[in-house]
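Weekly sync, protein design subgroup
Attendees: M.S., D.O., the rotation student, P.L. (late)

Item 1: inverse folding check
M.S. brought a backbone from last month's batch and wanted to see whether the design step gives back something sensible before we order anything. D.O. pointed out we never logged the input encoding, so this time it goes straight into the notes. Structure tokens as presented (216 positions):
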């Protein structure tokens, strides 16, 4: 596996380089200042830790060499989603707003809340003060799963300090409360998940993949 890491100078990109070094994976890190360096590197997996605004250019880089792409950015608009739909017929795309495996275990438990409908449900997410989107992509996943079973919760999105990521669901009945939560203590958990996604997708046929496919 040879990885083209886009957004290598950012917070997550820098940590991803450490994870790739630990895994002894050959890679090239690029950002907006040295994108042309990718032309001379024979990559088969692209990891995108840049921004939603760069998605189309990054999809082109993947398609150019028929490489798979891991989309680890969030806050994608309708235009970006349409581009992903188009490119998934050409290359393998793995897209997730949250690459923590334990977070996805939390998502899988939500289907069991169906019997608790009719109670008051509260969802809270906390991220670092620098995070721009609210609700986050991870929070949107929680809300989507709850909506599927007819639960429309009260939502709180907080941006505090340097919190990596905390998500909780609280269900309030008359005489009891059920709470389930997930906290990422270090960004390395996301990089570890991306490595698993890279190994999963590097030889996959074209299509759109997610953690649901990896965890089957």
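Designed sequence read out in the meeting:
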């Amino acid at each position: 596996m040879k990885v083209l890491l886009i957004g290598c100078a950012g917070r997550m990109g820098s940590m991803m380089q450490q994870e790739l070094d630990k895994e002894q994976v050959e890679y090239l890190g690029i950002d907006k200042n040295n994108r042309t360096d990718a032309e001379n590197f024979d990559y088969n997996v692209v990891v995108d830790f840049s921004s939603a605004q760069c998605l189309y250019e990054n999809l082109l880089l993947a398609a150019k060499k028929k490489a798979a792409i891991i989309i680890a950015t969030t806050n994608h608009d309708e235009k970006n989603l349409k581009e992903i739909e188009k490119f998934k017929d050409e290359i393998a795309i793995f897209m997730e707003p949250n690459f923590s495996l334990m977070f996805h275990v939390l998502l899988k438990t939500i289907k069991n809340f169906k019997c608790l409908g009719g109670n008051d449900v509260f969802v809270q997410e906390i991220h670092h003060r620098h995070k721009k989107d609210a609700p986050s992509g991870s929070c949107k996943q929680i809300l989507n799963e709850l909506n599927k079973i007819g639960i429309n919760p009260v939502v709180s999105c907080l941006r505090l300090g340097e919190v990596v990521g905390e998500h909780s669901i609280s269900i309030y009945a008359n005489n009891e409360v059920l709470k389930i939560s997930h906290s990422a203590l270090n960004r390395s958990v996301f990089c570890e998940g991306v490595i698993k996604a890279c190994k999963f997708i590097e030889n996959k046929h074209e299509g759109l993949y997610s953690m649901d496919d990896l965890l089957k």
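Discussion: The chain has two domains: 2-95+188-214, 101-184. The longest helix spans residues 188-201.
Action: P.L. to compare against the previous round before Friday.
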